[in-house]
Design goal:
Belongs to the NrfD family. The chain has twelve helices and no strands. It is mostly helical. Helix 2 crosses helix 8, helix 6 runs antiparallel to helix 8 and helix 8 runs antiparallel to helix 9.
């Protein structure tokens, strides 16, 4: 009865394709050694010796039936995510917007502490930065009226819509503050004399208003990048605003170190150190906390730009501290901080583009999240 059952079981397995049914010749009597299978042969053909790669499945002829390494690609060779369509104008806008924000904060501090040369430098730099930002945005949009169309709606859940209104509110305030610096050049009598008397108080109010909007201007672009599906931008949403805020402060301080004598550059030096520390702290968190999607911030073109930005930031901060009595050292430190801000903004931009083009940064984090959820449900 037992022998019939075994034969029936063997036929079922052979029919299902799991194993090949052993023939009658291959069966042995109880207690007799069974002939070893092909898996038990070694490369030299000896029987009874386990193969050198025990545990791996082998098919007919000894070929290995292992699964080939996964290749991260998608249908028709296209990436899973569509890379950002933004060009270098947006990367440059990230810098000019931060420069304008940092300069407005520096100008407000100089205004409140009675440093007219530093105030003037900050206001004029802020106007130049916001003007360049508008030009770059219009150039990226292709048609100027598209920026006007963005002002027809206000959507608090859209960082782009909020950013448009921030820029629209900041621009006139920064412009009035900068125009007020021309008041001493106007005649004392006549209609222009009235403008000469009214511009200073208007400039003071406008400068403080621009400084109040400046933190939002300097950081909303980080929120805008983080709100996309680009892996390296989206995963950095808690720390990218720190990087952009620190970079904005350092760049504004750098322009102040270049434009004014060391005797009036005290607030610029302090702002440079604070901005450099904040930027380096945020950059460290981005590169150490994100796991796989932090890789684009360390390798390739983006990695080189960000490494240069960190080095220049350190050089600029140290020079700002040590160059309190030297105009040359202060100016060199300011130039290093400006170059660091450019490298950082372009590095972050290129890191996001690289992460969108490589499917690994999309697929593997998704698998890890799914595995964590499955593990949490099993607990």
């Amino acid at each position: 009865m037992g022998e019939r059952f075994r034969r029936f079981r063997d036929r079922l397995r052979a029919a299902s394709g799991n194993i090949r049914a052993p023939s009658d010749d291959a069966r042995t009597a109880p207690g007799t050694a069974r002939p070893p299978s092909d898996d038990a042969r070694t490369a030299s053909g000896r029987r009874g010796v386990p193969p050198p790669e025990a545990g791996r499945r082998r098919g007919r002829g000894g070929e290995e039936l292992t699964v080939p390494p996964a290749e991260f690609s998608s249908y028709y060779g296209r990436p899973i995510l569509k890379p950002p369509v933004w060009t270098w104008e947006i990367a440059a806008y990230l810098f000019t917007g931060g420069l304008a924000a940092g300069s407005s904060l520096l100008a407000a501090g100089a205004q409140l502490t009675g440093r007219p040369a530093l105030r003037r430098a900050g206001r004029l730099t802020a106007l130049a930065g916001v003007t360049a930002s508008g030009v770059l945005l219009v150039k990226d949009l292709g048609r100027p009226e598209r920026f006007h169309h963005m002002l027809r709606v206000a959507k608090l859940t859209s960082p782009m819509s909020v950013g448009t209104w921030i820029l629209a509110a900041y621009g006139p305030a920064a412009g009035l503050a900068a125009v007020a610096e021309a008041a001493p050049l106007l005649p004392e009598r006549g209609p222009l004399g009235v403008a000469r008397r009214m511009l200073p108080p208007v400039g003071r109010a406008a400068g403080l208003a621009a400084a109040g909007i400046a933190p939002a201007l300097g950081t909303y672009t980080a929120v805008l990048l983080s709100d996309t599906a680009v892996p390296s931008w989206h995963a950095a949403y808690p720390d990218l605003p720190l990087v952009f805020a620190g970079s904005a402060l350092a760049s504004g301080a750098g322009m102040g170190l270049i434009a004014v004598p060391p005797a009036q550059a005290g607030p610029a030096r302090r702002l440079a150190v604070a901005g450099a520390g904040l930027e380096l702290f945020g950059a460290h968190r981005v590169q150490t906390r994100l796991g796989l999607v932090a890789e684009p911030y360390r390798v390739g073109h983006a990695g080189r730009l960000l490494a240069a930005g960190r080095a220049l930031t350190v050089v600029g901060a140290v020079g700002a501290l040590l160059g309190a009595r030297s105009r040359v050292v202060s100016a060199a430190s300011g130039a290093a901080l400006l170059a660091a801000s450019v490298a950082t903004r372009f590095g972050v931009f290129h890191a996001g583009v690289a992460s969108a083009r490589d499917p690994r940064y999309t697929v593997l984090p998704q698998r890890e999240r799914l595995q964590r959820r499955a593990d949490e449900q099993d607990r």
